[in-house]
Amino acid sequence: MINPAAIAAHDFGEPSQSYTARDAILYALGLGLGGDPLDRGDLSFLDERQLSVLPSFAVTLCTPGMWIREPALGVDFGKLVHSAQLAEFPNPLPAAADVIGTAKVTSLTDRGEGRGAVLVLERRIMDAQDGTLYCRLEQTLLLRGDGGFGGPPPPRSETSQPERSADAAWQLATSPRAALIYRLSGDWNPLHLDPDVAAAAGFSRPILHGLASYGIAGIAASRALRRDPAKVSRLACRFSGVVMPGDRIDFQVWDTGGSTAQFVAFVNDRKVLDGGEVAWHD
User: Fold this and answer.
1) pTM score
2) Which CATH architecture has domain 168-280?
3) Each residue of 219-233: pLDDT tens digit?
4) Hey, what's the torsion of the CAs at 179, 191, 276, 158, to 10 degrees?
């Protein structure tokens, strides 16, 4: 049974990590950049001689790992779903750095028996030398097997889509090897590698990481509105459907003014990203 007190008191420590240009380039390749070797916009994230780093690379740094699987927490890990992600990027990542991270559970709410619980984890990624904040993120986990423990209900949260046709569109065909490349950025969940694990979870084959779709969204929304993906200052969305490696993701983007936009994404007629919000540094 879920142990809310143990979850609230969990000590994440301060994980540290060193990364190089190679790591940032590998992340960009995992999102599908470089499919066209003549696309100079892509090459700016792949050329170590003059490298721009995708802001969303920060969400892969200093992760607390599979902490949620600790038996003392009582979470039914097999029914856990990463349901939403939000991150703010106040400062650009350098091509290489030593970074440290912090993490804390900021809320654990109860949807009721049979409907699950909602956990929000806040993380910060900072420069280990001078404390520069590179990223603050909120990861929302739906604990589908852990509702009914008597906690407070989750707040209502809705993002309304503009009631007009999208201002722009963008599509990206993912590689059949996308999950195999993306996992090298630190998410080793066998769901994205092992056909047997995927089958046990109800999928016909290994699925693409939600955070890969998330990173792709920052690129797609930027390109759709002719903005630089390196200038993304905020990126948020809900994961509403599964993306398989090899799927083409179609994005619809609304320019909402003031260097902000909203987006949704589909695979064929299935919505896979919802409530998307993106902002850019001026």
Assistant:
1) 0.95
2) Roll (3.10)
3) 999 999 999 999 999
4) 180
